Amino acid sequence: MRGNQLRRIGDAALLVALVVATCFILIRLAPGDPFYPRLDDPAWTPERAATQRVAFGYDKPIRIQFVYYVSRTFRGDLGWSHSRNQPVAEALASALPATGLLVVTALGIAFAVGILVGAWQGWRRDSPLVRASDRVSLVLLSVPEFLIAVFALMGPALAWRWFPTAGMRTPYGPEGVLGLLDRLHHLALPALALGLPIAAVVARLQASAMREVRDAEFVRAARSRGLLDGLVLRRHALRNALIPVLTYAGLQLSTALSGAVIVERLFSWPGMGRLIVDAVGARDYPLVAGGVLVAALCTVVGTMLADLALRWATPRLRARA
Q1: Is position 303 within any domain?
Q2: Is 155 part of any domain?
Q3: In the chain, alpha helices (H)
Q4: Per-residue pLDDT for 97 more than 70?
Q5: For residues 52 and 249, what is the distance between their CA atoms, to the nearest angstrom?
Q6: Is 81 among the domain residues?
Q7: CA dist 22 to 57, 126, 175, 192, 258, Å?
Q8: Residue 202 is part of which domain span?
Q9: What CATH number should be reported for the domain holding residue 303?
Q10: For the chain, what is the domain count?
Q11: The whole model's pTM is what?
Q12: What's the whole-number mean pLDDT along residues 199-205?
């Protein structure tokens, strides 16, 4: 493994450590603790709460708690979730596949739609249809995910009843192929609400890059050889115009993960974002810290995959590696 690759891995590890440390400190500076909300329960007396604080080490200074947390994390122990009464690793493992499905689908929609629309906008000369589509992408870019999700719930889900309003599947629903279609039916609105704002950003980046590439010398040379316009677009222009989009792709995983927190809550999607929101409300320190750690790791891995895709699209970067 070469020096620059080792340096990237070291930077990624440092970034994850900083994110986790910041989250750990901030959540412990907030008022209350994992047992504070349960003091309203008659069976949960202040004495019992104090005993639990001592048992889980919350009576110690923050720096001591942090050292304990880091040492346990390096051993693969993310702690105990007080709100769910199970190990944090098990709680995250049960929620991560649902978030992964939602985020991957949303990003797939975002980049497929964004690249196709942006390439068309940039390749075509200015026209009323191009200007109209550009305004639509600008509106989508300006509207946050939660507003799109609210509109989707109010219109297609509640008013028109085209889509379900909550969950990943119909309770006691069909299995097999019909069950897969049922899951896709539940997935459609959350994925669109999460993916459309990202698609708008991708489309504008792709269109700007395509406008620069369409008049480049190598494109004119390809046209002079008599190649069809569509072939020039696919073989020569699009690959070079993808470079800014691929550079931006790694950042969009963190955007999608943060947007999934609200979208999952609105659609009652049983994913990691909804899990972390509930954990914050319950002051479940280990679960929040574990969720942030997993999200940071996913973002780092996504950035590295985007870097590999960028090297595929840019031969000169492969030559330097």
Answers
A1: yes
A2: yes
A3: 3-29, 46-56, 62-74, 88-123, 128-142, 145-152, 176-213, 217-224, 229-232, 238-266, 272-281, 285-313, 315-320
A4: yes
A5: 44
A6: no
A7: 19, 48, 44, 32, 17
A8: 97-283+294-320
A9: 1.10.3720.10
A10: 1
A11: 0.83
A12: 90
